[in-house]
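Now for a typical sample entry:
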Amino acid sequence: MAASTWKGHLTFGLVSLPVRLFTAARGETISFNQLHKEDHSRVKQVLYCQAEDKPITRDQIVKGYEYEKGKYVVIEDEDIRKVAPKTAKVMEILEFVKSEDVDPVYLDSSYYMAPDEGGEKPYALLFAAMKKTGYYGVAKVSMHNREHIVIMRPGQHGLLLHTMYFADEVKKTEEFRTDTENIRDKELALALNLVESLSAEFEPQKYTDTYRDNLRKMIQAKIEGNSVVETPETHIAPVIDIMEALKKSLEMRKPPAVAEEIAAEPKRRGGRVRKAGSA
């Protein structure tokens, strides 16, 4: 099993059980080094003092916080150490909340929470209770020199934990509103049909990072001295008639017989069907 990022006791009420956390997900990227264009040798960044107009070494650097424009207070590492929370060995569940009340925008890093030796039974009991009730747990823990509020939720096989953004870290979007007043029933019905036609089981393994794959292929092509094939640009025509766009989208998703039926549907005006030969 993966190395633990935190070990301690999870407590709620008078119940305490040993648990450990290990990272559930981590972004993967392809990194590049900076080279001198002329000879392809590695380069390094030079730290430069603007006031003295000369380069300086790292041991001449201190941290500074700009409290006014151009004015700084020096913060020593010892100052930060004094106020930083110590990594705690206890994670306390503060409360349980309804899962539908937790907006995913507040969720940050993901961890698996596993029972440690001797904690299997109470862990299984907590997992079953949360799964049965649909509640998420809100807990507090100190790790990595920072205090975190975390969300615990039941997954398929056990408990998952997410560090949570604090309210003042989430950008407010009062202007982010959607007007649904002018949607017609016919438009909504077609949109629902299109959504249903695209529905499928969630299988994360189906999805890959195409850009990362293309980067690897490009790098290999450069190593082998081959030319790099440019990724074609996708052109999307603007939607002029949303009803026609929805119908055509459904035609592409439906079996031939159903697609023909959709395409042959008579056009309506004012909610009435136009008869042949009528004005």
Remarks:
- Confidence is low (pLDDT under 50) at residues 266-279.
- Residues 185-232+240-267 form one domain.
- The CA atoms of residues 128 and 152 lie 13 Å apart.
- The first strand starts at residue 6 and ends at 12.
